[in-house]
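Sync notes, pocket subgroup
Present: LS, DG
LS reminded everyone that the earlier model was apo-only. Rerun requested with uracil included. Inputs:
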Amino acid sequence: MRMYDIIKKKRDGFSLTKEEIDFFIKGYVDGSIPDYQASAFCMAVFYKGMTEEETANLTMAMAESGDTVDLSVFGTLTADKHSTGGVGDKTTLIVAPICASLGCVMAKMSGRGLGHTGGTIDKLESIDGFNTALSPEEFFAQVEKTGIAVVGQTGNLTPADKKLYALRDVTATVDSMPLIASSIMSKKIAAGAKNIVLDVKCGSGAFMKIPEDAEALAAEMVKIGKMCRRNTAAVITNMNRPLGNNIGNALEVIEAINVLKNNGPEDLTSVCLALATQIVSITKNISRDDAEILTKDALQSGKAYDKFIEWINAQGATENSLNFKKADYSHPVIAETDGYIISSDAEKIGISAVILGAGREKKDDTIDMSAGIILNKKTGDKVTKGDVIATLYSCNKSSFESAKNKFLDALEFSQEEPTKEPLIYKIIK
Ligand code: URA
C-alpha cells in the first residue's frame, strides 16, 4: 500500500477502506508517513469529506493508536462530558460535581485552552495547589474514594490525534466535520467512560457556526459513540456569545462556584443543568424529567458544592485556595452610544481575553491566571452611553488598548431590541 495512492483516492472523492485508514494512522504515528503527506490527506478530507463508515474507522484507528483507559472496574456508571470548545465555557467545573454527587462516576481527562477557546485544565490550575497530573494509581484511587477526578491528557493517549491535531492547526484543516468528529470521539473512546454527553457548541465562538452544521456533527459523533457501544447523546448549545459573564481562568472558577452556590448567571446555570440532566438520564437509565429533578436538587441543596470541595481537596487544593489573587490592573470598557447590544462575537471576545493574558498565543506561553473579562452587559441588554459594558483584567497594563479594541469590535449595537436566541438548540440521542 502507498500513501500517495490513498491521498489520490480521497482527492478524487472515493471512499477509503478500513485497511487504508489503518495504514495511514499507523504510518503517521510511527513516522513512516511524513507531515506533508498527512497534510495533503487532511486537505483532501476537508474538501471531499468522509462517509460515516470512514469516519468511524478513522475514529477507531486513532482511539487504538496509543494507550486506552479501562474504567470497567467502576461498573456502568462511568460518565464523561465533552465540549467542542467555547468562550467562557466552565461547564465541567459545575456539571462534574453535580453528576458525581448523584452517583455518576466522573473519571475525566480534559484539555488546555486552544486559540480563543479556554480549557478545563488551565482553569483548574488557577486553583492554588490543584494537581492535574495524577498518576494512574492516584487517579483510580481518587475516583474510587470520591467518584470524581479530572486530569490532563496523559502522554500516550491517542497519539495519532495529538499529532494530527497539531498539524491541522497549522494547515487550515481544523474545521472539517469528519476530522473534528473523529478527533473528539477517539479521545472519548480511549478515555473509557461508558456514558458520553457531547456539548456541541454552535455560533460565532464555535467551530460550527450554524445549527445545521452543529447538528450534523452531533449526529455523526453520537452514531460513532453508539457503534463503539457507549451510551452517547449530544446537546447543541448556543455559542453566539460567551457563556456566563466571566472569561479567563480564575474568573471562570469564581463564576462556577457562584453557580454551585446558587448564585450564578442564568444562561450558565441552565446549560449546566441541561448537560448534567442528560448525563444522569443516560447513565442511570432514567427519564430526562426524573433526571432533571435530581440535578436541580443537587444544585439547590448544596450537595453539588460539597462534592466540588471534596474533589478539589482530593486533588490537593483547599477552600482557602479559592481566595484568588486579583489581577494587578483593571480597565472598564465604557459604552459610547445608547442602544441594544444585538450581537457579541464570542470568538473576538475570546481573542480579547487571550490578549489580556488569559490564553496562549504560542504553545509555550505562560498564562496569567488572573487575566480576563467580566461582562456587565450581554447580547439583548440595553446600554446607555457611559455604562460600563465590561471590565478587563490583566497583570500587563499595556495589553488593555489592544484588548479593548478587539472587545469593542466584537459588539454590534442597534436601536431595535433583538429577538432572543435559544440557549439550547437540540438534544440528539
Ligand atoms: N476539539 C477536538 O478535540 N478536536 C477537534 O478537532 C476540534 C475540537
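DG: The first helix runs from residue 3 to 11.
LS: The two ends are 38 Å apart (CA to CA).
Action: DG to write up.
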